[in-house]
Amino acid sequence: MPASDLDLLIEAANEAGEIASGYYTADPQVWHKPDDAGPVTEADYAVDHMLREKLRSARPDYGWLSEETEDNAERLSTKHQFIIDPIDGTRAFINGSRDWAHSIAIATDGKITAAVVFLPIRNQMYAAGRGTGAFLNGERLSIRDRVGIPSVLAAKPNWQPKFWKNGTPPECDQHFRSSLAYRMCLVGVGRFDAMLTLRPSWEWDIAAGTLIIEEAGGIVTDRAGDPLVFNNPFPQVDGVVAGTNAAHSLLRDSLA
Fold it and tell me: pTM for this structure?
């Protein structure tokens, strides 16, 4: 049995990658969730089942929150919780893109304490433990402020004038990637200065990425500038603004 929570998550992520890769570009069965909540594939369900069995067998006293498992109130009475997105970026997975990930985290008393985001097709394993740093394939991550126009990862709707003071977004170099967890990792590795999503965000999309950015030296808050709290009764937070100190301040100061 793995000695630490983070070792357990890394082992589970590798197994998830093996399962999902077997379905990748193999025309998996696809269903569409109610209320336009997006697609889900047989690969999502297969990975979710494996993770639930493996992780809860190893840590039976931990609560469980996953995008592909029906939620219940049991997790609210636990000290620790697994927060899981079996495949983040399912549309990318269906379309044959490489930008999908397994996002696996553990929360303790509302804070993420261990986190893994694994992109099997890119062979990129992002991992972080609270107080012990963030890593990509074993190499420590460290981000810092840069001079010039910040590069920001965000979907197009986030740049609508209604979200910004005087109806004008700050001057930014705008980019996009399919997986929200992957966007957060790209900030953690220093390829982009910031990411944001201004709509309510599901905890499973952002839990692992939050710790990866924080342990790399960045800042992660909700759109109001407050720290993120996890294992909420309704598992959403009020958007996410994350990045280097300077980029985070620019975005937060510019929001309406």
Answer: 0.96
